[in-house]
């Protein structure tokens, strides 16, 4: 009866039900069970490479930075605290891995972060080199001598509170942050863990991409035991330290940060640290929008509207993340040595598979 009143027939209703059932089955077929990182950028995602310099002035400033960094007499402080000190005792020359870190794009990121101010860029990049030494990540991987290792921070990720998995629509590797899966008390090791994971998501950056995406979900997880006397929202001191690290030592690295399920306590925390967040970073924060607006469903956890059925198993995921990252770093360093082991090589060339340089490094007399 209701079908006739609406101008439809029972057959049409049946077709609609059959169509919905088919669509549901098709969606179920698309679900992909996954328990490890996605190694490579899929072919259906493209990266739009932008020009290196907008004008000759920017190029000239880059070359001035290159001249400073390639000076044979350059000595870098061994700690962030002493980077402005004139005392030469706590300084040493650049290591091979530090030269590999000083890519063309790395130098440009520091110039952009200071609005192309040479003096400020030199200070910032020197400070970051000193911090990386002091923090224990200047060797580009534990296999090369980093002291922040996978064994050191493994306990922090046993609950799966940080996950490197997939790429967003702009080809940025994704780092999931899940504060609701916090499994340890506040400590410096939590900061080491975050930096370790930032370095790993950078390992996964594909050719032509220099930024990452953060997907931050504040949802509570009942399967994670509550820690007595410890909030899953970090203290303001830790928050400020993490912000300092991100904004000072990872300039221009954040492409997008999507935040969801934000409780009032997290809002309060965000309000407290808001004054310390620079305007550029604030513009990259997206609150309570569906993740699948920014990430293809084939690269997204089904919890957020994707088709990846991801279940964290520490015994499977953690060794795979460590192994895959190591392979990517080995590839990067092999190509760095192949192309001359000089400062200013392009990340495009270092992360690719082509035989010849696409972007030969500029020289200090290329003006």
From TrEMBL:
PROSITE patterns: CRAL_TRIO
Domain CRAL-TRIO: 152-312
Residue ranges with Polar residues bias: 7-22
Keyword Zinc: no
Xref: InterPro entries: CRAL-TRIO_dom (IPR001251), CRAL-TRIO_dom_sf (IPR036865), CRAL/TRIO_N_dom (IPR011074), CRAL/TRIO_N_dom_sf (IPR036273), PI_Transfer_CRAL-TRIO (IPR052578)
GO terms, biological process: phospholipid biosynthetic process; response to xenobiotic stimulus; sterol biosynthetic process
MF terms (GO), sorted A to Z: phosphatidylinositol transfer activity; sterol binding
Gene Ontology CC: cell periphery
Residues covered by region (Disordered): 1-24
Localization: Microsome
Keywords for this protein: Endoplasmic reticulum, Microsome
Reaction equation(s) it catalyzes: a 1,2-diacyl-sn-glycero-3-phospho-(1D-myo-inositol)(in) = a 1,2-diacyl-sn-glycero-3-phospho-(1D-myo-inositol)(out)
PANTHER family on file: GH16843P (PTHR45824)
Name of the molecule in the record: SEC14 homolog 3
